[in-house]
Amino acid sequence: MGDRPRLTLTATVLDSPDARELAGFYERLLGWSRDEDEPDWVTLRAPGGGAGLAFQTESDYVRPVWPAGPGDPQMMTHLDIQVDDLEAASAHAVAAGATLADFQPQDDVRVHLDPAGHPFCLYL
């Protein structure tokens, strides 16, 4: 392992039709601040450090379907966000601009869709 170069994960990148719009949603949801803010690229950083989130405008973005059926555009990734009060966190997510997904596979998890359609899970 001594020959391995140093690698640091800095962000998970989410594509969307409008990077600034999606970044604004996650700013409201998580309370994180912008680190970079370009028209087609925005990064958010957590107050305590660690890997952040980045948003990239993709002109050919196709909204995923969750849960996906045959032939549907599938999600490529989703975010898991731990919360201390599931109902309050779910209400906060909706107020920030999320949609509660119709299909909820577990009682102790709430699946939401961000404004670009990316699923994310709130869990206890």
Explain how this protein is built:
With 124 residues, this protein is α/β, with parallel strands linked by helices. The protein has helices spanning 19-30, 86-96, and strands at residues 11-16, 33-38, 41-45, 52-57, 79-82, 99-100, 109-113, 119-123. The strands form two sheets. It has a four-stranded mixed beta sheet, covered by helices on one side. The protein has a four-stranded mixed beta sheet with strand order 5-8-7-6, with helices on one face. Strand 7 and strand 8 (119-123) form a beta hairpin. It is globular and about 45 Å long.
Task: Describe, in short, the structure shown.
By secondary structure, the chain is of the alpha/beta class. The protein has two helices and eight strands; from the N terminus they run E-H-E-E-E-E-H-E-E-E.
From the structure above, extract its key features.
four-stranded mixed sheet, alpha/beta, 124 residues
